[in-house]
Specification:
CATH class of the largest domain: Alpha Beta
Strand content: 15-25%
Shape: globular
Radius of gyration: 16 Å
Structural class: alpha+beta
Number of strands: 7
Helix content: 40-55%
Largest sheet: 5 strands, mixed
Strand order of the largest sheet: 1-2-5-4-3
CATH topology of the largest domain: Beta Polymerase, domain 2
Distance between the termini: 42 Å
Number of domains: 2
Length: about 180
């Protein structure tokens, strides 16, 4: 996948169609100083914009290979375009994530993109652990990397809320002690 080409095309189309979106996943981690390998691009998109997303992705030559109320996944037969995944924002928590997303420059300032803030990336990773225990190691590594870089500056009330939703209060306390020296 050519991340620059795909991102330029998607952002241009999303901005023209006024699709409410924010970058998430591995690419978003990079915007916050955590660099790790990723093979796709992940977006959070407002559920009211899903028809626009579907149309844009189809026009770009993508095929929707999976779609539920919560997520959709698109893949291109051309390797340069790869896979693009979408989480659909319709609940209060995910709509809040879209509202809190911050604009960041990418590709040396050539483009600007809205990116989920670290607290919300952490929240999604906590949810991924709750949904699939097999993902714990990788997701926890990403959480800890974010905390190592940004821990003391983060909104721990929001982080605690995410951990609490999934019954991981003790994990949150341990991480706060480790990265902030407090409870």
């Amino acid at each position: 996948m050519d991340f620059k080409v795909v991102t330029e095309k998607i952002l241009s189309a999303f901005n023209n169609a006024q699709v409410r979106h924010a970058l998430m996943g591995g690419f978003a981690l990079g915007m916050w100083g955590i660099h790790r390998a990723t093979v796709d691009i992940d977006f959070l998109v407002h559920c009211d914009d899903l028809d626009k997303v579907r149309s844009i992705m189809s026009e770009m030559g993508y095929e929707c290979i999976y779609h539920t109320e919560n997520v959709s996944q698109y893949i291109s037969s051309q390797s340069v375009f790869g896979e693009v995944d979408f989480i659909h924002a319709f609940r209060e928590a995910s709509l809040g994530m879209l509202a809190r997303a911050e604009e960041k420059e990418i590709f040396g300032g050539e483009l600007k993109i809205k990116v989920l803030i670290p607290e919300d990336l952490i929240g999604l990773k906590v949810q991924a652990i709750a949904n699939d225990e097999a993902r714990r190691t990788g997701e926890l590594a990403d959480i800890e990397a974010l905390l190592a870089l940004h821990g003391a500056r983060l909104d721990w009330v929001k982080i605690d809320e995410y951990f609490s939703i999934f019954g991981f209060e003790e994990m949150a306390k341990e991480l706060r002690r480790k990265y902030c020296g407090s409870q």
